[in-house]
Amino acid sequence: MPKKPKNRTANLQLMQNLNINLVLDVIRNNSPISQAEISRVTRLSPGTITNLIKILKKNNFVRETGFGQSSGGRRPVLLSLNPEARYVMAATFFADEITVALLNLLGDIKKEVKVAAEVEKGETRVFENFVRAADSLLDALHLDKKNILGLGASFEGIFDSGEGMLILSNRFGWRNVPVRDLLKKSYGLKTFVEGDGRAMALGEYHYGAGKAVTNMVCIDMDSGIGSAAVLNGSVYHGAFSMEGEIGHIQAVSDGPKCRCGKRGCLETVASGSALIARVRRALENGEKFKGLHLKNSLPEHLLAKAIFQAAQEDEGVLGMVEEIGCHLGLAVANVINYSDPELVVLTGYMIHESGELLSNIIEEVAREQLVAGASRKVRIEKGVLGDNAALIGAASLVYQDFFPYL
Ligand SMILES: [Zn+2]
Prior knowledge:
Elements: H1 6-30, E1 33-34, H2 35-42, H3 46-58, E2 62-67, E3 77-81, E4 87-93, E5 97-103, E6 109-116, H4 123-140, E7 148-155, E8 158-160, E9 165-169, E10 174-177, H5 179-187, E11 191-195, H6 196-207, E12 215-221, E13 225-231, E14 234-235, H7 266-270, H8 272-284, H9 300-311, H10 315-339, E15 343-347, H11 349-352, H12 357-369, E16 379-382, H13 389-402
Parallel strand pairs: 4-7, 7-11, 12-15, 15-16
Antiparallel strand pairs: 1-3, 2-3, 4-5, 5-6, 8-9, 9-10, 12-13, 13-14
Bound molecules: zinc ion.
């Protein structure tokens, strides 16, 4: 009898894995669903489906949750994904704070912990703080690492996700730090990493404002400004991982000096930091605005919130906000004219702390500048995940690995 080639067994196992992921994906997106329906959608034979469901049930991924309509014979058993079968760990690393969370298989955050990053105490301390937070989360939910499918993490700064490398982060003061390897070494989970703007875009794409679209651009308007494009479920990185540096397109010639070394970048005139600095300068010069006092102790997003509130009552403040909105609206128009997305998602504290004020100005200005403006179907919307966008996006890096058809 001829010997079975070794790699044939491996291929069969691989095929079973791919088919299992496919079946699990179909159940996840269509729960509750019958075996016959799964067979129809996946085009796998009923016998194959029976075997795969057996494995999924044994591993607690799938459970029976009722009966469907009878088409003459017995009523079919309906199957649903058990969202608590496994968990995903997600972490966002910002220079002031690390957030670590556990999410179930449907993207719901079960619990999160925030700890100071303590960047000033060095790289090792940052990762120790992460491990402490991650351990405390597992303890709180009585879970073990074997319950966790993997870790998805995002970092602020210029990021090479192929290499898992934080290339440059002024806020961390880090250059070329192999964060994926360091996280893997420090916690032992299968690890995926991405820049924070791209993680936000992925979060909104899979679980937020972009759920029903194929391609979109997400623009983050915070103390800095960045953008990320998602096409068919994947973030576009550019040839050298530098895609999306929209904050550094020139908005005014010979304008203020930017942290990147150039002058007049969009960030220097239209970011949250720029707005706050501008209002502060005006206050220091003795200008008075109705109801506006900027307390030094407040974090940036709350200072911005106070400015947006004052803009409702004071023409002078409103004028400054409108000017920023014009710069941002032009940038959004440039993005749309260049890349023709279905949807532009606006996110970041500038958007979320300003109610509808800033997003309305941005949309109005952008639409005026669009080529063939009246006939353009592009939607411009606020993100729906708020502060959780990066965290959920980081988790989606793990889901994408586990549910390849996400
Ligand atoms: Zn710049």
